[in-house]
Prior knowledge:
This protein is α/β, with parallel strands linked by helices. The protein is 56% helix and 8% strand. It folds into two domains: 2-56; 64-273, Collagenase (Catalytic Domain) (3-Layer(aba) Sandwich). Helix 1 (2-19) runs antiparallel to helix 2 (27-45) and helix 3 runs antiparallel to helix 6. The longest helix is centred in the first third of the chain and has 19 residues, at 27-45. The chain starts with a helix and ends in a 13-residue tail after the last helix.
Amino acid sequence: xxxxxxxxxxxxxxxxxxxxxxxxxxxMDIAPLVALGVYGAVVYTFSHQINFWWYxxxxxxLPKMMKRVLLDFYPYYGKxxxxxxxxxxxxxxxxxxxxxxxxxxxxxMPDDVRHLMLxxxxxxxxxxxxxxxxxxxxxxxxxxxxxxxxLQEFHTGEVHYEDGVILLAADPFVAGMKNPKSGYDIGLHxxxxxxxxxxxxxxxxxxxxxxxxxxxxxHTMSRIRRRTHRYESDYANAPEAEDFGLxxxxxxxxxxxxxxxxxxxxxxxxxxxxxxxxNEANPVMA
Length: 286
């Protein structure tokens, strides 16, 4: 909307200039049209930054119904104090405007699912000044696990770095988000990978072991989430490229255990995300 308000007068002025232009225009006659064209191109080029600047200062209100949905389905939001809840709501409302959704198995994408799928993006960036993840413009949403043509297997989530697309399966997403102790929060996992790509976070920024010790790291992660009985199915074959997503999911959902067993990685994540999940009411550190 802010970009449209800036471009619309230029379009109207360009039409008027064209309408009243003489049959044989010279350079002086064409100059205003060129200037308006350059102005429109500049506004379009920086539309993302302009919209972000505007909505950051004048955030739209989140519908009351969505606040109720967040309280019922999103524990991170429910534990925030009043001021932080308001900031979460404002960021979520701006994120909703910024991102597009491509429902793959829905006749129409429910609005509450749209908001809930953006909530992990707000959570992982909640301590950061820049939070819109501009590289990632599209969420492609399936009902259940989908077949990945790249990996030739079924997945509940993926990030396509080249296209800036995040793929999520809605039912596993909601189940893991609502009951992280019995499931896995794929929203946090894949939005963390999106943040990692956006902010160019390297493995050495949060992991502190030699490659041959990764198996030990994965065993520790399974203990942190109290899932040693599911090590072979859930951890043993986890791709190295998704270690940041694995860490962030555990960082938020098993904070005390994470701090006790992997204090260096826990403190590195606190610094990278500028959040302390042990302070649930006000996690932002600075």
